[in-house]
């Protein structure tokens, strides 16, 4: 009997053989300590006698935190810093009862209890008599304790076991045990001849594991749950699939070349947050671990029992630190997660407009010609982007002296048109002693180190490259300072930043990323790999804030991300392909990100690799215009595809799609204000607003923007119609193009032409638009608003209007904004202040009010605070029941009422 | 083009000569030609007739007419347009969305009357500049056109020479030859394609051979693998010349063994087996002559006919080309024109091929073979298309569009690659110069202002 080996047996065999009740862990109730803020308790593995320390916290806002670490680790294990926005405030736990089998704790209101069972160790969170969620109910808690290296029998046993498993488990391409937490692709050759605990090989790469095996695992059971979501980034459906008999969902930030769809493989970013949803309750599990992580999902769906979903999380290193967000509504879960990791950065308004990108715009003349092309074809745009070729030999923060000799002239030219630019700044730094950035990083010792203590070097766009250690706060501060106008030569205030390749991408590294034994200070890349991209964007965003003296909001796009990345800017879904299936997948990919905090998401319009058909390009513009981050992008090897290159008809179609986006910018801005303010996603699955409507639970071919717009993109080649589901029994929806009214709670077939995609406004909502679309969003700043009031069957509607300067932090620091409640009730539409403590002066006024589902009044009177009453002219379209009030003319920032008689 | 420009130039000059025009009162943004529809104090009927509104709703910053005609001077209508008179320069219409958007669009500043933008009236300056450049253009056109006459004359003489030499039987023979060649055309194209493919294969084989040679040299123990140690023993590979090869440097070397494109592949797929390079399998390349395409021979009958008629191969070829309506482009045939940029020398050999050669060593790349005239219908001879150039990795075959503009000299003025492997070349030649407008026409044109 070898305790070491038996643990491996346990871990190795986990996925199929381990049954509930077999957990070797037991709670030592006599060690229980309860303080004001937490409960602590020791756990013992009866097989190897290693003790763990369990900490339980009841957090404010209906959350429970479960932390498990070794009681006495040989050396500290990694705990993820900089992701939580603060130490989450706790609430007292009270002990309700205790006996030799366990303890019962009260979680406060709502008759919620936390039950700790001693043998085997297990946690259950109950509400009344119902189990909401159980931990270790399947006995999959595992903790590979740190140990001293020795060639023991255990090792031999382990190797033998590995061999057996490797032979038996070749049917998939992923690891099956904690002991294969490195990537187990078909090409993998395991160094079985060696000690896999302390060293592994992947292709030609050797991973030295000076700390030995250190993985952790825990299972969660969710009774009554059939639908789980989240854990991006995967190119998969919104509803997560069971992984029985297949690969688990993998979270490990990688630069994947031409990624496959409907696949649990790891992509560029990782957010270890899963949401569960049923008609009764929405909950969330946040597994705070930045090492390579795998998630297994199984479900008994289809059987006659009560539905249940079982989830297992495995990470290669670190500790178990899990936040259980108890909802109960989707909105609650969003607020709970936001209280832990923060909310979406509030972007400058212009970043919500249209972005024109290509790898690459060749030179200044090219940029000027494309800029001119937009004006000639009267298509608005706000940002033009420069990819890696703009630099001097892929040295970021520099310009190619031949192609971009006068960057400031170019930027000034854009500024003269109130437009902006983004340049790319990647985190790999060319190793070149004549490159200032490299020399400074090297001399300051800011590079990531290899296992032997030298600067880690890898191969990327510039050739041999170093990788700054962004986990080091001093490094980040220095990096941020490089964005100062006097440091980044040729930069100006209308130039923003794109962080690509920050997984990080290492062309000659294992799986095209950094070696796991590379060192960030004292920690291995293994421990914090998934955090690297977050830190790059954090430091860059900080740089953009600092260069403006803390005044201007930054805009930074990132490809890699982690929990908390929403605080620093936008993400996109990486290098997609110009295929219809990739257009389709953009919807669930961005919905999944939105559910876990990242609202500012988009996919490359048109598709990055390959060349889209004209129809696909048009459809992609129409879809992208209704997704949060709206940027066209194309690979270097593809033919040019600026919107006017496909004949006048298609130019007109694309122009119209982009114009629809610009007209709706006030609503987008308001949604982002809310995302920033309260963590509510901008782009939402239908179930978020209709949580009891089971028909919506798996839907990912249509989506909501906020509560009030429903979008059903056309993603079929040659599509002549779509079947949209309009939710809400007793509700109505208005087609925004025709104003046709449709009843809710039905599947509606809508014939489509190439001219637009179906978009509906919810009856009961008010949406502000700006009908005067100009060549950039800045040009529209002071333009008047048109209000679209869509009446519910009860002739009621409500909406908001949010206005600020569009680009500074003054909305936050000085409360300089307008936030108004617009409501229609009792035949009167009024505007009331929602933020009495704030102030902002806008020249914008109310140009027009369009009331959908209205009846014809005899007169319409506008009342303003000065006591004046003016009769408004109106038009009434009886066939569509549309009432248009002409030119109320009242300032958008004041109180007013329009009374219909 | 030059005709229209000249006309404008002259009329502008005339307008200047008579002094500034008297500003006629009319609603903001309305052109003189439509002033009659905007009569003060009378109801205004939308220009599309869709409705009639009180006159005080014209330019009241609210869009009443579906066609946007009630708001010629504001940004209220999404489909409206604004007229700037631009006295001193040229009148223009701009989309009404550009009114008061903070950007100066009209040189007379009239579009920004309420945006706070500080615009300078630049019309006079722009007018002056335009006149200057038009004057230059006019001179170029004039001289260019004279040159063109000479070219036509020379081409005619050349043609006659050849006609004489071929005994006037050219037309008849051409018909015979073309009929005979017709079935061959397909074969020729197939041949061309397979030749291109073969060339690519040969090139790859050559690469492989080079790699194999290097490999054998490095594989000290001849075990079929180049190990890290073996690489490290070859200090000539040391990139930073610090006397040793680090592991990274060695890996970099490994990469360099792969042809460039496979290296890009490798970056994304990690196909390379670390530093254990599998030795390339080399097939001895077939012996080939130079890389030029040798045409398949015509059948004997046709060939003899051709031989009889054409003593000179060029003559046959020349007659096969479309040298323009008056053969004015014939002088370009068998000439080449070069443009040197920072990296490359570009070479245009009209009616033959376009190529690019790196300045600092490396082989020439074929950017396209003569295809056809490719200008728009009304100006066919303004553009040349060269295609079927060297293939691009994962992309199309290279092709080049040559834009021809009127100039006294025959010269390549610029090249660019707007899209990967699609080149654009600008080329000036007198052969596209149009006859300058006569004074009469110019004076006639004046009434249009």
TrEMBL record, chain A:
Subcellular compartments: Endoplasmic reticulum; Golgi apparatus
Catalytic activity: N(4)-(alpha-D-Glc-(1->3)-alpha-D-Glc-(1->3)-alpha-D-Man-(1->2)-alpha-D-Man-(1->2)-alpha-D-Man-(1->3)-[alpha-D-Man-(1->2)-alpha-D-Man-(1->3)-[alpha-D-Man-(1->2)-alpha-D-Man-(1->6)]-alpha-D-Man-(1->6)]-beta-D-Man-(1->4)-beta-D-GlcNAc-(1->4)-beta-D-GlcNAc)-L-asparaginyl-[protein] + H2O = N(4)-(alpha-D-Glc-(1->3)-alpha-D-Man-(1->2)-alpha-D-Man-(1->2)-alpha-D-Man-(1->3)-[alpha-D-Man-(1->2)-alpha-D-Man-(1->3)-[alpha-D-Man-(1->2)-alpha-D-Man-(1->6)]-alpha-D-Man-(1->6)]-beta-D-Man-(1->4)-beta-D-GlcNAc-(1->4)-beta-D-GlcNAc)-L-asparaginyl-[protein] + beta-D-glucose; N(4)-(alpha-D-Glc-(1->3)-alpha-D-Man-(1->2)-alpha-D-Man-(1->2)-alpha-D-Man-(1->3)-[alpha-D-Man-(1->2)-alpha-D-Man-(1->3)-[alpha-D-Man-(1->2)-alpha-D-Man-(1->6)]-alpha-D-Man-(1->6)]-beta-D-Man-(1->4)-beta-D-GlcNAc-(1->4)-beta-D-GlcNAc)-L-asparaginyl-[protein] + H2O = N(4)-(alpha-D-Man-(1->2)-alpha-D-Man-(1->2)-alpha-D-Man-(1->3)-[alpha-D-Man-(1->2)-alpha-D-Man-(1->3)-[alpha-D-Man-(1->2)-alpha-D-Man-(1->6)]-alpha-D-Man-(1->6)]-beta-D-Man-(1->4)-beta-D-GlcNAc-(1->4)-beta-D-GlcNAc)-L-asparaginyl-[protein] (N-glucan mannose isomer 9A1,2,3B1,2,3) + beta-D-glucose
Pfam families (UniProt xref): Gal_mutarotas_2, Glyco_hydro_31_2nd, Glyco_hydro_31_3rd
GO terms, molecular function: carbohydrate binding; Glc2Man9GlcNAc2 oligosaccharide glucosidase activity; glucan 1,3-alpha-glucosidase activity
Membrane-traversing stretches: none
Family the entry assigns: Belongs to the glycosyl hydrolase 31 family.
Protein name in the entry: Neutral alpha-glucosidase AB
Source organism: Oncorhynchus tshawytscha
Gene name of this polypeptide: GANAB
TrEMBL record, chain B:
Keyword Signal: yes
Domain EF-hand: 206-241
Record domain MRH: where: 334-435
Pfam families cross-referenced by the UniProt entry: PRKCSH-like, PRKCSH_1
Keyword Disulfide bond: yes
UniProt cross-references to PROSITE patterns, sorted A to Z: EF_HAND_1, EF_HAND_2, MRH
Gene Ontology CC, one term: glucosidase II complex
Record-level GO BP terms: liver development; N-glycan processing
PANTHER family: GLUCOSIDASE 2 SUBUNIT BETA, N-LINKED OLIGOSACCHARIDE PROCESSING
Protein name from the UniProt record: Glucosidase 2 subunit beta
Organism field: Oncorhynchus tshawytscha (Chinook salmon)
């Amino acid at each position: 009997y070898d305790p070491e080996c038996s643990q491996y047996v346990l871990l190795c065999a986990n996925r199929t053989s381990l049954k509930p009740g077999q957990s070797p862990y037991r709670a030592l109730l006599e060690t229980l300590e309860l303080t004001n803020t937490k409960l602590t308790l020791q756990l013992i593995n009866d097989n190897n006698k290693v003790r763990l320390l369990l900490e339980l916290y009841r957090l404010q806002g209906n959350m429970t935190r479960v932390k498990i670490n070794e009681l006495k680790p040989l050396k500290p294990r990694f705990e993820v810093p900089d992701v939580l926005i603060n130490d989450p405030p706790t609430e007292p736990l009270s002990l309700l009862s205790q006996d030799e089998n366990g303890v019962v704790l009260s979680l406060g209101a709502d008759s919620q209890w936390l039950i700790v069972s001693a043998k085997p160790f297990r946690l259950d969170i109950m509400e009344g008599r119902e189990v909401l969620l159980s931990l270790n109910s399947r006995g999959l808690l595992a903790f590979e304790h740190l140990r001293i290296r020795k060639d023991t029998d255990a090792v031999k046993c382990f190797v033998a076991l590995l061999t057996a498993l490797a032979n038996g488990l070749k049917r998939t391409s992923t690891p099956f045990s904690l002991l294969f937490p490195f990537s187990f692709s078909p090409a993998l050759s395991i160094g079985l001849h060696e000690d896999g605990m302390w060293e592994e090989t992947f292709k030609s790469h050797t991973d030295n594991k000076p700390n030995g095996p250190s993985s952790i695992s825990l299972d969660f059971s969710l009774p009554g749950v059939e639908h789980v979501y989240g854990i991006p980034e995967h190119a998969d459906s919104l509803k997560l699939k069971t992984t029985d008999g297949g690969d688990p969902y993998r979270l490990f930030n990688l630069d994947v070349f031409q990624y496959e769809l409907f696949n649990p493989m790891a992509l560029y970013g990782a957010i270890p947050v899963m949401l569960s949803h049923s008609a009764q309750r929405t909950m969330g599990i946040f597994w705070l671990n930045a090492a390579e992580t795998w998630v297994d999902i199984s479900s008994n769906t289809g059987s006659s029992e009560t539905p249940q979903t079982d989830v297992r999380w495995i990470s290669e290193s670190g500790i178990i630190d899990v936040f259980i967000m108890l909802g109960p509504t989707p909105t609650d879960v969003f607020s709970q997660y936001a209280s832990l990791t923060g909310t979406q950065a509030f972007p400058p308004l212009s970043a919500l407009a249209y972005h024109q990108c290509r790898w690459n715009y060749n030179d200044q003349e090219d940029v000027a010609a494309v800029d001119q092309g937009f004006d000639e074809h009267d298509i608005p745009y706000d940002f033009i982007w420069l990819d890696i070729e703009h630099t001097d030999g892929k040295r970021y923060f520099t310009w190619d002296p031949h192609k971009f000799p006068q960057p400031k002239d170019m930027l000034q030219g854009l500024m003269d048109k109130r437009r902006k630019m983004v340049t790319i700044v990647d985190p790999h730094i060319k190793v070149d002693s004549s490159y200032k950035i490299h020399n400074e990083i090297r001399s300051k010792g800011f590079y990531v180190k290899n296992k032997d203590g030298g600067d880690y070097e890898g191969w990327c766009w510039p050739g041999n490259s170093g990788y700054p250690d962004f986990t080091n706060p001093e490094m980040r501060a220095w990096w941020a300072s490089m964005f100062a106008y006097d440091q980044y030569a040729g930069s100006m205030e209308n130039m923003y930043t794109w962080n690509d390749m920050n997984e990080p991408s290492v062309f000659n590294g294992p799986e095209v990323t950094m070696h796991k034994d590379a060192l960030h200070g004292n920690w291995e890349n293994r421990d914090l790999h998934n955090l690297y991209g977050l830190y790059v964007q954090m430091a860059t965003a900080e740089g953009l804030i600092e260069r403006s003296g803390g005044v201007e909001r930054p805009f930074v796009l990132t490809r890699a991300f982690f929990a908390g990345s929403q605080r620093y800017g936008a993400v996109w879904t990486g290098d997609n392909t110009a295929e219809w299936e990739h257009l389709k997948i953009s919807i669930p990919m961005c919905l999944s990100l939105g559910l876990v905090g990242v609202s500012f998401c988009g996919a490359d319009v048109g598709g990055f690799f390959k060349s889209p058909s004209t129809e696909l390009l048009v459809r992609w513009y129409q879809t992208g215009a209704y997704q949060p981050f709206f940027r066209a992008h194309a690979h270097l090897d593809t033919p040019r595809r600026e919107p006017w290159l496909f004949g006048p008809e298609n130019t007109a179609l694309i122009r119209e799609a982009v114009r629809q986006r610009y007209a709706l910018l006030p609503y987008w801005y308001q949604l982002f204000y809310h995302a920033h303010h309260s963590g509510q996603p901008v782009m939402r699955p239908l179930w978020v607003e209709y949580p009891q409507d089971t028909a919506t639970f798996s839907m990912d071919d249509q989506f909501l923007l906020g509560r009030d717009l429903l979008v059903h993109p056309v993603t079929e080649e040659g599509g002549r119609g779509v079947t949209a589901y309009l939710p809400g029994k007793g509700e109505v929806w208005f087609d925004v193009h025709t104003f046709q009214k449709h009843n809710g709670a039905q599947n509606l077939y809508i014939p489509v032409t190439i001219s637009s995609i179906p978009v509906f406004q919810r009856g009961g909502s008010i949406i502000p638009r700006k009908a005067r679309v100009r060549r950039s969003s800045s040009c529209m700043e002071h333009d008047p608003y048109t209000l679209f009031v869509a009446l519910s069957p009860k002739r009621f509607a409500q909406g908001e209007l949010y206005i600020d300067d569009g680009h500074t932090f003054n909305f936050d620091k000085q409360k300089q904004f307008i936030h108004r409640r617009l409501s229609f009730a009792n035949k009167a539409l009024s505007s009331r202040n929602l933020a009495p403590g704030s102030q902002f002066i806008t020249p914008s006024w109310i140009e027009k009010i369009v009331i959908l589902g209205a009846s014809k009044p005899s007169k319409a009177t506008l009342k303003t605070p000065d006591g004046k009453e003016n009769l408004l002219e109106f038009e009434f379209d009886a066939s569509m029941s549309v009432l248009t009030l002409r030119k109320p003319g009242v300032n958008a920032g004041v109180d007013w009422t329009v009374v219909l008689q | 083009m030059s005709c229209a420009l000249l006309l404008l130039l002259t009329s502008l000059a005339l307008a200047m000569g008579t002094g500034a025009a008297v500003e006629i009162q009319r609603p903001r943004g309305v052109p003189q030609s439509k002033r009659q529809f905007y009569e003060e104090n009378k109801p205004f009927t939308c220009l599309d007739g869709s409705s009639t509104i009180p006159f005080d709703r014209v330019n009241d910053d609210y869009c009443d007419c579906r066609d946007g005609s009630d708001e010629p001077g504001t940004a209220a209508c999404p489909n409206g347009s604004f007229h700037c008179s631009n006295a001193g320069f040229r009148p223009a219409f701009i989309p009404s969305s550009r009114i008061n958007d903070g950007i100066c669009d009209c040189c007379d500043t009239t579009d920004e009357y309420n945006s706070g933008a500080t615009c300078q009236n630049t019309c006079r300056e722009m007018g002056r500049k335009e006149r200057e450049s038009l004057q230059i253009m006019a001179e170029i056109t004039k001289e260019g056109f004279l040159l063109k006459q000479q070219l036509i004359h020379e081409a005619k003489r050349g043609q006659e020479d050849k006609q004489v030499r071929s005994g006037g039987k050219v037309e008849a023979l051409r018909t015979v030859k073309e009929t005979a060649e017709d079935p061959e055309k397909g074969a020729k194209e197939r041949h061309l394609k397979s030749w291109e493919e073969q060339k690519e294969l040969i090139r790859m084989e050559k690469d492989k051979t080079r790699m194999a040679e290097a490999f054998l040299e490095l594989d000290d123990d001849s075990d079929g693998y180049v190990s890290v140690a073996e690489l490290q023993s070859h200090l000539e590979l040391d990139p930073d010349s610090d006397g040793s090869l680090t592991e990274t440097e060695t890996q970099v070397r490994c990469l360099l063994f792969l042809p460039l494109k496979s290296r890009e592949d490798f970056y994304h797929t990690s196909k390379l087996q670390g530093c254990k390079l599998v030795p390339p399998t080399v097939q001895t390349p077939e012996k080939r002559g130079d890389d030029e395409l040798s045409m398949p021979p015509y059948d004997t009958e046709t060939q003899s006919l051709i031989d009889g008629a054409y003593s000179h191969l060029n003559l046959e070829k020349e007659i096969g080309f479309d040298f323009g309506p008056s053969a004015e482009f014939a002088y370009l045939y068998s000439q080449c024109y070069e443009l040197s940029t920072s990296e490359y020398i570009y070479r245009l050999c009209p009616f033959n091929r376009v190529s690019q050669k790196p300045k600092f060593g490396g082989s020439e790349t074929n950017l396209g073979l003569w295809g056809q005239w490719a200008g728009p219908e009304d100006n066919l001879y303004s553009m040349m298309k060269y295609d079927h150039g060297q293939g691009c990795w994962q992309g199309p075959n290279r092709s080049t569009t040559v834009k021809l503009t009127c100039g006294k000299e025959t010269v390549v003025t610029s090249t660019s690659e707007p899209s990967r492997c699609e080149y654009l070349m600008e080329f000036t030649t007198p052969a596209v110069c149009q006859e300058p407008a006569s004074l009469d026409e110019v004076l006639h044109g004046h009434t249009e202002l």
